[in-house]
Amino acid sequence: MTDTTRENPLAFIADELEELRAKHLYRPLRIMSAEQGPVTTVDGREVISLSSNDYLGLTHHPRMKAAAIEAVREYGAGSGAVRTIAGTMSIHEALEAELAAFKGTEAVLTFQSGFTANTGVIPTITGEADLIVSDALNHASIIDGMRLSKAPRKVFPHADVTGLEAVLREATEQGRPGGAGPYRLILVVTDGVFSMDGDIAPLPGIVEVAERYGAAVFVDDAHASGVLGRNGRGTVDHFGLHGRVAIQVGTLSKAVGVLGGYVAGSQDLRDLLVQRARPFLFSTSHPPAVVEACREAIRIMEEETWRIERLWSSTRRFKVELARLGFDTGRSETPITPVILGEAEAAIRFSARLFEEGVFATSVVFPTVALDQARLRTIVTAALTDEQLDRALAAFDRVGRELGLIAG
Fold it and tell me: Order of strands, edge to edge, in the sheet holding 131-135?
């Protein structure tokens, strides 16, 4: 007979949720009921969106819609299997070859997301005989990838090349713990563009120091893909470092406008990942519509160069105007423009009032950022018009003064 009097073993979840609400750290999901775009409908309200990662405005591009529809007609709705069984189609191989040519590397392997790319590649190529050296502000997917590896890890201060050199010097001089000899691989891992602050990694200095100590460099270019470099090729291209960065991780979910992630590097790296990377081995491959839309996006990025130009001109204007109003945008150098307010309650209240004024700018609080670094995280996309940007800036001015966040 079932005992209906016993306590719910998951009752603590409700307590944790209540604690989040009390600390102003609880964030409900916003529901979009229109296509992703500069103006969309969120929770039933039409708003100007400053919260999308759709940097180049490709999610609703007619050529990409047409490519996706045609792929469904020809190949069906899904692939039906993981890549290593029956899920590798000719179009998957074609996308990877085109991405490799775009990135200037020998080979590319696609994953279901940028997150699974990082959690796939890092544990696959590192183990107990290796060392991972990570920037202090690297993305959560990198951190989780390191946790899944058996390799020891060290952290260097954010974007601090001198600090990185100190870590590498100690690692090479001391070797593995217990006198086990030198490390087989020292892997220096950094974001290309940091997703919360919008600053660019000092990649030339990182590469130079890593080469001096025989380390390999791994760059996660999720927020540089489509944004930096020729036609959006990323930070390696932006800094002219081709052939000097061992591994590049990119995304197909942001500027490319669709879904997925990829690892670009040597053919040997790709071959090993096919054999051992667990997210690749145990996840169904991308559906045809996703693959063909991504292929079309690469062509559009090569042809419609005005999109990146528009992205950067609007970004520069937005930053200048926010600074003129008195907002703190931190160290951002890219279209990721944080509006740093400090306290979570202030960030959440500001975001809510902007939403009422027709501007969707998401608040970001702990644990995504430090407790005293709560902010709005904004991105100005290439799809925003000057008039929409004017309206958004007017709302920032009006609401900022109303809430006492800037001088009235």
Answer: 107-111, 261-265, 247-251, 216-220, 186-191, 131-135, 153-156
Among candidate residues 215, 190, 186, 187, the one with its CA nearest the CA of residue 201: 190
Task: Please state, for a pLDDT cut of 90, what percent of the chain lies above it.
Answer: 92
Does residue 235 sit in the same domain as residue 86? yes
CA-nearest of 393, 361, 360, 388 to 374 is: 361
Structure tokens belonging to residue 325: 């109003």
**Per the residue annotation, which of 24, 254, 286, 319 is the catalytic one?**
254
Strand-pairing partners, residue 217, are 188
Structure pTM? 0.93
pLDDT at 4: 61
Q: In terms of domains, do 219 and 164 share one?
A: yes
Same domain, 291 and 319: no
> 187, 248, 262: which is closest to 219 by C-alpha?
248
Q: Choosing from 103, 223, 238, 319, which is the catalytic residue? A: 223
Q: Is 103 in the active site?
A: no
Which among 134, 195, 285, 314 is annotated as catalytic? Answer: 195
78 and 143 fall within a common domain? yes
Question: Quick check: helix, strand or coil at residue 226?
Answer: coil
Q: Which two tokens stand for residue 83?
A: 């890549």
**Residue 161: its pLDDT value, please?**
98
Q: Is 65 a catalytic residue?
A: no
Handedness of CA 121, 127, 129, 130 (dihedral sign): positive
Transcribe 351-404 into DSSP letters: HHHHHHTTEE--EE-TTTS-GGGEEEEEE--TT--HHHHHHHHHHHHHHHHHTT
pLDDT in tens, 115-150: 999 999 999 999 999 999 999 999 999 999 999 999
Single residue among 269, 303, 337 that ends a domain in this structure? 303
Over residues 357-378, the pLDDT tens digits come to: 999 999 998 888 888 999 999 9
Q: Residue 98 CB: number of other CB atoms within 10 A?
A: 15
Encoding tokens for residue 108?
A: 């590319």
How many domains are there within the chain? 2
Residue 364 neighbours by CB distance under 10 Å: 21
Residue 223 is a catalytic residue: yes
Question: Which structure tokens are listed for 403?
Answer: 């809430």
Q: How far apart are CA 126 and CA 273, in angstroms?
A: 12
Radius of gyration of the chain (CA): 23
Under 8 Å between Cβ of 55 and 381:
yes
Same domain? For 257 and 114 the reply is yes
Based on the domain organization, do 49 and 138 belong to the same domain? no
Given the structure tokens 């563009």, which residue do they identify?
193
